[in-house]
# Entry
Amino acid sequence: MLFFSFFKTLVGKEIAVELKNDVVLTGTLHSVDQYLNIKLTNVSVVNKDKYPQLTALKNCFIRGSVVRYVQINQNDVDTELLQDATRKEYSPVTGGEK
# Structure
């Protein structure tokens, strides 16, 4: 649930998603669900010469299981919030020992 909560804080931010088939898409994160499926708006393909069939793509839904990497702007990450959430999830008081 930690990653899901983290990605929810990035809604409306610009991200890049690299898929397992080497396609890299950039766009605005519209939504994410508990399976880390991603919906992007204002999509553009990084390598337009290699994937010309994707240049007309404006919005897309990406299944979480086909994502290799998600690249996030460093300024969009609240590291203190992320560290606090990690501590809370794995604290012995809440039974988070996994």
Strands lie at 14-19, 24-32, 38-45, 60-62, 67-72. The helical segments are 2-8, 79-89. Residues 37 and 64 are 4 Å apart (CA to CA). The longest strand covers residues 24-32.
